[in-house]
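ingest -> fold -> write
write: protein_1
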Amino acid sequence: MTHRLTGTPLLSVSARAGVLAAALAFALATALDGRPAHAAGPPPSAATTAAAEPDAEKLFKAIVKVEVRAVPEARSAATLGKEREGTGIVIGEDNLIVTIGYLIVEADEVTVVDRRGRTLPAQVVGYDHATGLGLLRSMVPLDATPVALGDPARLARRESVLVVNHQGPDDVTLAHVVSRRQFTANWEYMLDQAIFTTPPAMNWSGAALVDKDLRLLGVGSLIVRNAGDEDDRGPGNMFVPVDTLKPILADLVKTGRRAGPARPWLGVAADEVQGRLVVSRVSVDGPADAAGLEAGDIILAVRGEPVRTQAEFYRKVWGGGAAGSQVPLRILQGVEVKDLQLRSIDRVDYFRPKTMH
């Protein structure tokens, strides 16, 4: 069940923030009992609600809407669109905002809409392909207190959390954690410990996953068909844990990217199909395209070592050197087995530069 905390015209922002805090405290208390939140006893007292209200109101002020227009002829437009919108979370005193990175890939113009309804210019600070997270900075001071970063590693299965997006108190989802596990996707992406929650929340792109103390645990990335493990199948959301941001935050702010050599990127999307790794898409003018890889090909091996899963494929590609290294692939193309040599690149170099106005 998705719990909506729906306000009315008679409720102020402050009052609705109090409702949110009370509902969260109540849900977490009953969750520890093993009872469903909607079946619990009397609501928290007015004193409890009043005490929690300021933090909830601060949280909403720190949640902004992110609006992006991509550069002309953006390579990512085919999959992400030319215009994008999602949520950002203020995490720094200097108007620093974290969001999900795919919103700001090849961004030409970026604005944020704050809690007061102001549309403000923003600039891209950094993007990290490995985590999928991006940073923005509002160019106009925000009336917001930064959200503290929490500790996702301490999350327990079935723990209650909130999903908060730029729609504010009227579109908050009370959810619970169903798993923390490896996640792979066909765009050459893998997380060791992604966070999965149910029920599924809409407006998930960049949404804030927060704990009972309203600390940020993760940033919304996807809606998925199976969020749980073998015992808890069903749709939900995947969040990038903030633990992946903490060690690279200073580098992203300083230089726009993490320190150290860039990961090799091939420009190939491959899906796991009946125990095989089948190419579903090749990025135009990318390394895989230049080497002759085609949709429908089956990837058999990397550097002579067989691969059948995305995780195996990525580990062998990434473990063979930094961006610029040669990546030998053995593929099945039609009925012919071929050996290809791909010259990897830094994925950032594939994207179109920002327009100079």
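write: protein_2
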Amino acid sequence: MMASEFFRSAMLACALAGGVALSACASVGGAAAKTPGVMDEAEHAKFERDRAAIKAMAGDYRVRFDFIETVGFTPDYKVREPDRSGGYEVVRVIEDRGDFISLQHILVIEAGDEKFPVKHWRQDWRYEPASVLVFIGGNAWENRLIDKADREGKWSQQVYQVEDSPRYGALGAWTHEYGVSAWTPPAELRPLPRRESTTRKDYYGVLAVNRHALTSDGWVHEQDNSKLAMIDGRKQIIAREQGVNTYRPNNQFDASVATNYWAATKDFWTEVRKEWDRLEVPGTSFGLTVQGEPEPVYEPLLELADNIEAGKTTTADAVAEARKVIAKFTTRDIGTLEQRLVKAAAGSAMMAAAE
């Protein structure tokens, strides 16, 4: 079974719903680390401590995902049962330019005697960024400009999906007080979580505070989630949820499943990231021309990577196809999601008629 096939079935239902973990693989780029601006000794020490905290999240992990709804805010709302899952995850630093660090997560799936990788999420960290890519609803994102005074000493975290399209971003400061290194941003909007995207239609997104903190035995991603719905034309929080994702070092699984996959496909994913990067122009927006889970985007890209690993296609040919997929399902004319869907359908009809 190929990873993309498993992803379409079981992964969407359970593994990615909880975010099975895997020890990602690529090596750090050889470019010398860059120290931004002119820092005094204390600022530089803080900057290096921040960097060390970010890079400490790399490793091979057993991951536990716990999500518990705590309260409902609309009449007759029934708080859902807790959602708990886990698995193995590899996290690797795939790029380090000093003021920019990229961490790739890869899942290691064990299905009977089979073991295979599934490329998971990516987190990019930028120091004192001029802009941050934030979700604005309806499968659209804005590269929001940040005033210089507001970004001093802070890092943005931008989270990307399995095929490197964006999910959400935020800006916050790392603190190292009371024996804990932690990064906590203000609440930002993020898309409907994958674990509920196929089972719930009563809300459209999450206003989330995401805290990352190092622990004595790994790290933790804590979430304070407010679930947002449109009711009578107004935004309404219908429920709150607490999430705790724990990453504990583990060497009891075959991390080479992930590292071998990355070694075979990292050049492909580098070019895919460049295509998405071209859309991230500061002060502008872009969106997808699909609704809900972007399966038409990620399924072909994951399959192209699988084919590279299996020797069925070259990286160059796969990159050419990936560019076509991304171009087909993205637009800078975001309007509303409904308008984008209508335009996309009309365009597809015209192409079919021309053929």
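write: annotation protein_2
The longest helix spans residues 256-277.
Residues 3 and 118 are 6 Å apart (CA to CA).
pipeline exit 0
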